[in-house]
Amino acid sequence: MSIEPEIRYCTTSDGVSIAYYTMGEGPPMVVTSGILFSNLNAPLLTLPEFHRQGSGFGRGQRFVRYDARGSGMSDRSMLDFSIEARVRDLEAVVDHLALESFDLVAIAHGVVTAIAYADRHPKRVRNLLLVDGYARGTPFAELPSVRAYSSFRDMAEESWEDYTLAIANQNLNFSDSVRAQALAARLRDSMSPPAVRGFYDALPSMDVTELLPRVVTPTLVISVKGRTMLDPEWSRELASRIPGARFVTRESKELIVVDDAVVAIVEEFLGIDAASTPARAAAHPQAGAFRTVLFTDIVGHTEMMQRLGDTKGRDVLREHERITRDLLKQHGGAEVKAMGDGFMASFGSVTSAL
């Protein structure tokens, strides 16, 4: 029996209610909302396409997902899908969880959000992982299939089921009517007809091309060739413009983009390997093994932040994280959870912990 994560809420700087959840323990990994087909409360395992997106990447991560405004469990009445609004949604979740640094993952339509956020908050994003995305929304909006949606989207409010079935079948290349019905139901659970209209209307304004050369975060770009909707050339453009970005391609005829092969690529990029990362492996000792649990805390953290200000205060927290993680490696400790101004770690003995 799978355990469904608990959905919670936070509020953006402009007053929008955003739904999110977290899964697992360890260094945080945040996935930007792709908006279309996004619903935290939908049964994730009914469609293989959404299994990985719902259950996380790799091992030993604290996995964070959220629904952007206008979609899923978030405020459905707010239909601003501009880049600025999308960044505010992500900022709300990150700030609410007090994540000082984290890996940022984006798939398809969530890529522009991730790039804009990484440009605005370069010191917070530890690694940037971009899967099958684009820097400009116009080429996607001009695809014949997407233009076809635009030509009959007026029927969405009159025949919402037929409209979502058309989108689902197009995504699946008209290859599986049963899966298309399930995918269409997922879209209906995720958005309203006005929201879908607003999403497609906003596509031409999606453009982060000028931000790409300014990205300083280590970046991995993955292109999945063979999909019907997203041109691999768009991913190649991303990688070519981001300094030092690593570009990887793979083949797939399926709608799924986060399968075992992609997870393996991501784990290798992040250095997640049970054989070479003993600290991560130690976080899950064998049953019956004796462990010492250590909690750390910065005394007077709130007063420090008020005294130094946000920028200098975060610099202190990042240095605190670096020192703590170095010491954990030196003494065989395993990071269980980073909590902003403190850590939870485990050791094989009391002596090592001390």
Envelope shape: globular
How is the largest sheet built, in terms of strand order? 1-2-4-3-5-6-7-8
Task: Give the number of helices.
Answer: 14
User: What is the percentage of strand-forming residues?
Assistant: 15-25%
Count of individual beta strands: 11
Secondary-structure element order, N to C: EEEHEHEHEHHHHHEHEHHEHHEEH
Roughly what percent helix?
Answer: 25-40%
How large is the radius of gyration?
A: 21 Å
Mean pLDDT: 81
Summing up helix and strand content along with how strands pair, one would put the structural category as alpha/beta
Q: Care to describe what's here?
A:
By secondary structure, the protein is α/β, with parallel strands linked by helices. The chain has 14 helices and eleven strands. It has an eight-stranded mixed beta sheet, sandwiched between helices. A three-stranded antiparallel beta sheet has the order 9-11-10. α3 (111-120) links the parallel β5 and β6 (125-131). The two termini are 39 Å apart.
Features:
3-stranded antiparallel beta sheet, alpha/beta, 17% strand, 8-stranded mixed beta sheet, 354 residues, 14 helices
Q: How is this structure best summarized?
A:
The protein has 354 residues and is of the alpha/beta class.
Summarize the SSE layout with pairings:
Blueprint: E1 8-11, E2 17-23, E3 28-31, H1 51-55, E4 62-66, H2 83-96, E5 102-107, H3 111-120, E6 125-131, H4 137-141, H5 144-152, H6 160-171, H7 177-190, H8 193-202, E7 219-225, H9 232-241, E8 246-251, H10 260-270, H11 278-282, E9 292-295, H12 301-308, H13 310-330, E10 334-338, E11 343-347, H14 350-353
Parallel strand pairs: 3-4, 3-5, 5-6, 6-7, 7-8
Antiparallel strand pairs: 1-2, 2-4, 9-11, 10-11
Helix pairs in contact: 2-3, 6-7, 12-13
